[in-house]
Amino acid sequence: MKAVEYAEKAGEIFVLSDSFIRIKELIDDEASTIDDIAEVILLDPALSGTLLKLANSSFFNYPGKIDTVSKAVLVLGITEVYNLVIAYFTTEAFKPINAEEDFLESFWQRSVDCALLIKFLGTTMNIANAERLFILGLLHDLGELVVQQFDPDKVIACHSDDPAVLPWQKQQEVLGFTYGDCTAELLKLWQLPYSLIKPIREQDDNDCDQSSSETQLLYLAKRVMIRNSFYPEHPYSIVFSDDMIELDDQILDAAVEYCDLERLGILSVLKPSSVMIY
Known about the structure:
Number of helices: 15
CATH class: Mainly Alpha
Protein name: HDOD domain-containing protein
Organism: Thalassomonas actiniarum
InterPro entries: HDOD, RNase_Y/CdgJ
CATH architecture: Orthogonal Bundle
Domain HDOD: 13-206
Pfam families: HDOD
């Protein structure tokens, strides 16, 4: 099957809830107010609790206490709250997946790592509102879960212990597309913003010199995550084309350190079961 065919099948199983659709409609409606959005969020206690936990986490580092959903929307902004809502409902949508717990724990840890790395790198490079990049890292590889649902043997075949054959290269060889391609197709079916879909679709392109800063940062964060997860004894350059990027190992080391510090806190909110591995 092609990436879009996997995504279409997945769209019948992994569905964003009616609450998400209503929140999206309100955010897209310029006449909506903060209170309108907060009111719909409050109808889902689990979503409200998750949003407030994340808003008060060290990830945002807000100096005061955010104790209401309305204040979260006001302080963090509608876009950032929308991203947190996407994060929550995405993890909820994939609860019906047919996969072993160890596989899911590893997947979500790597996804959170990529999310933390892209946020840190965006902040270091003075990208405005770098927290918004978190959602790109979290969602970047959902295509792996899609393929796992329908062809788990192919997920195993896509795994490579050889750093000379990087994961996205192996995926192209086995599937004819990458997990990023499949992710982009699923997000398109979910009608998520193009600003999310485009960087995720282009994350494996070596020729991204002219791409947006979001695409370049996802390219960088994903590869640092891959190196850190699978090839920690190798230099960072193992996951980059020689002429693609000028590496600053000190910045990348700092990004990995930040990731190690923040990982458990984010996992404990988004995927509580995953903290059992620590």
